[in-house]
Amino acid sequence: MFDIAGELHRWAAEGRDFAVATVVSVGGSAPRGPGAALAVDGEGTAIGSVSGGCVEGAVYDLCVQALQDGRTVRERFGFSDEDAFAVGLTCGGIIDVLVTPVRADAPSRAVFEAALTAATGQGPAAFARVVEGPAELLGHALLVRPDGSHEGGLGGHPDLDRTAAAEARALLDAGRTGLVGLSEDGSHCPGGLSLLVESSVEPPRMIVFGAVDFAAALVRAGKFLGYRVTVCDARPVFATAARFPEADEVVVDWPHRYLRGTATDGRTVLCVLTHDAKFDVPLLTEALRMPVAFVGAMGSRRTHADRTRRLREAGLTDRELSRLRSPIGLDLGARTPEETALSIAAEIVAARRGGTGVPLTGSAAPIHRDLTGAAA
After folding, report:
1. 65-74, 80-89, 132-141, 344-353: which range is least confident on average?
2. Nearest in space to 141 (alpha carbons), one of 111, 174, 178, 169
3. Is the pLDDT of residue 342 over 90?
4. Which of 58, 233, 249, 371 has the most CB atoms less than 10 A away?
């Protein structure tokens, strides 16, 4: 739901009734992961998507029906051999969708509004909803803050909210969206309740080191992919906001010193475009020992070989060096800054999603990999 939080927040502020269809789980080849949402308001306006087009019409109808009768329902959509073009995922996957009416008379409207407010600027929060269990609990919601405080309720045993809040907080700490299984009394016995926990966290960071022409194109690609992008360079004449207007911030500092002092996490992407040993070696010595998602460096194969030799001399192990993606980018035959940025962005996506980088034509690899552990 958080993928359309901005528009839903506006609808809620205007007092509109609406219904939200949220992907709960996926199986096989499914185009979108848990948390993806489509919403319909009382006037029939639709926003978002749950399947990239395969079942949007049927889900739209379910939202309209939910607005009329006020009932939360869960539906499964999948591939049909008998009629591949009927309502179903012709790509061969299965998705479960929870459709929840958020009307003025809905008991959970207040917690929905609080979740949307949090997602549009009040900091990290996790939104937990009952997606499987007794019909009377389906759709009940709980909003959990990083400190463990929560509001709303799941409508069951008093221990249920406390246990659910603890589980949601754990997913929030990891920046993940996923399913959690609980029993009605709050223990972890199978066969009880399933909760969809959606985490609303700050966007992941991309830090581009080197205020070069290629960096401007990579900033645009990073923003397109949803990253908060920083450009860092020690040379003030090049590291200016005027040269990188689309960057979230431009920092003048020695790259290794800035990296040592700035916040990073397991989603952070580091792109080193300087290909100058006096910048690269101290920077990569820091970067390759940090628990970040991606470390890549630009340069020719000769530059890479020289850089690797210098990094070994600086004390990096084979295991640490194996994390370095250099020369950075996939082989697209790129020449221009924009093409090069595309090749780098493609490698980042492949690393994040477990892709191979080979053409899909003639490949037996699945198009849509397991999305159940994807970050929000």
Report:
1. 80-89
2. 111
3. yes
4. 233
Neighbours of 132 (CB within 10 A): 18
Instruction: Name the burial class of residue 85, with classes exposed (0-12), middle (13-18) and buried (19+) by CB atoms within 10 angstroms of its CB.
Output: exposed
Alpha-carbon distance values, 86 to 28, 50, 90, 163 (Å)? 18, 17, 9, 41
Q: How far apart are the first and last CA of the chain?
A: 10
What are 212-243's pLDDT values in tens digits?
Answer: 989 999 999 999 988 999 999 999 999 999 99
Q: Hey, what amino acid is at 342?
A: L
**C-alpha span between 96 and 62 (Å, rounded):** 13
At position 208, the amino acid (one-letter code) is V
* Prediction pTM value: 0.64
The pLDDT tens digits for 281-294 are 999 999 999 999 99
CA atoms within 13 A on the CB side of 206: 28
